Amino acid sequence: xxxxxxxxxxPTYNERENLEPxxxxxxxxDVRVLVVDDSSPDGTGEIADRLAAELPWVEVLHRPRxxxxxxxxVDGFRHVLAGDAELVLExxxxxxxxxxxxxxxxxxxxxxxxxxxxxxxxxxxxxANWGLVRRLIxxxxxxxxxxxxxxxxxxxxGFKCYRRRVLESIDLERIDAAGYVFQIExxxxxxxxxxxxxxxxxxxxxRTAGRSKMSRAIVLEAVWKVPRLRLTALTGRL
Length: 238
Hints:
By secondary structure, the chain is an alpha/beta fold. 39% of the residues lie in helices and 18% in strands. The chain contains eight helices and nine strands. The chain has a seven-stranded mixed β-sheet with strand order 3-2-1-4-7-5-8, sandwiched between helices. Strands 6-9 form a two-stranded parallel ribbon. The longest helix is centred in the last third of the chain and has 19 residues.
């Protein structure tokens, strides 16, 4: 990675239907792409290698096994920070996040934010193709986190654009969250260090190809980890 700018981290596990269309959709967004694949048994890693051989702005980081979303992002961030990118984005590979919104997140950071967070729960944002249970879990998690931790409307959102200095400041190695609570913890650490977080309205659509990675264990991790984060902060150990 030799050209300064923005890098999109795309964690993948069994996303063979989505990876190439997503990478192609990002081609005109003036970003580079780092695919972080957890040794997907469906051949996603091989597709990523083919794309990287064809497209000079695509790179692949292969991880030996599946260890959860949080560890995939930490390894991806570490890899990007070893280069010269000034902006680091994260997004889902399944088109739940619209590639057309990438420039909007980048613009929010260029306008003064340190972290731009794609938000479903601010005016102009929303969700599509979700059942009642999924909506209740997502909205409930954000309310729960807002009450206990921070004034963010969509704390579990995983569509983000960071300034480099934020990721260099929040001590990534101390983050042990495996599932979606990783998004809560990184945003909380960002705020605790005095950085400016801005929520940018997005429309979140449920995936149409592949299988969701949401599980009961991921939900339970968030339930106990949120109060632990607050306690850690209150005791000055965050």
